[in-house]
Amino acid sequence: MLKLFAVLIALAKVKISATSGAEAIDYNKQGDWGGVCNDAGSKKQSPVDVIIPEKSASQKEALFNLTGNADKADARNTQDKNSIKISFKTEIDYKIPGLKETSGQVKQLHLHWGKADAEGSEHLLNGKRFSAEAHLVTTYTNNNIEKNAVVARFFKVGEANAQIQKMIDSGSDGSDLEISEFNLTALYPSDISKVVIYSGSLTTPDCTENVHWMIVPEPLTISELQLTSLRGAILGEEGAAKTFNWRKKQELNGREFKSYTSSSSHFRMSVVVLLSAILYAIY
Fold this sequence. Notes:
The protein is of the alpha+beta class and about 280 residues long. The chain has helices at about 1-15, 160-170, 225-230, 265-280; strands at about 50, 55-60, 75, 85-90, 95, 105-115, 125, 130, 130-140, 145-155, 180, 195-200, 210-220, 260.
């Protein structure tokens, strides 16, 4: 009874002002999407079922090392009609895994969720779908052409996530869209040990195939109450709630995955394990 009461309160409270300027997407009619989303010549569509390769390339530096004040960034709810999306006022850069000597600039962060806790992520991981998925959208320049690099992070049901809650709360009363001291490093920390990359597309119309995807296999947690809040969130200034906003799985069409691991994160983990063993032996 108490759990049901908490869910009802969350639904009554949440009115998220969350692609301003973008049209609302009908996720029930994905076959009607425009652009190259359903073009027969499109062979690099996303999302896909990500298969973790058996072998990984190792690098000495951290896979993700967000610069600037990424741990206390100023952000703003963008009043998106299709997701809870925030943009960053703080300039945040990072070196893109899989793209040698290429820096990416953080633009926005948004969420995907489903009708039930067993679904919600856009990508699958070795055939498994998660409860939600966050996309950190960044850009980089190649031959004077701006392209997209997106870092995907999965969420499974568990403890509430403090940063996701900040996104849910932003604009919940229809007025205050600002978020202060958003800790982006809590979602994308420098100790991430593995990332899987592949070449794909945007997962919303017009589904342009210019995305360097980076999938973090290790999931974070999100609570059942937070998932309920996402399904009931009113998106956009005069929008409506979306019970789900994930695109169906696309064909791989011969694309390959590459895996990168950070030797520095393994070293830190080894130190932690060693210290734990020493403390256990002492006490």
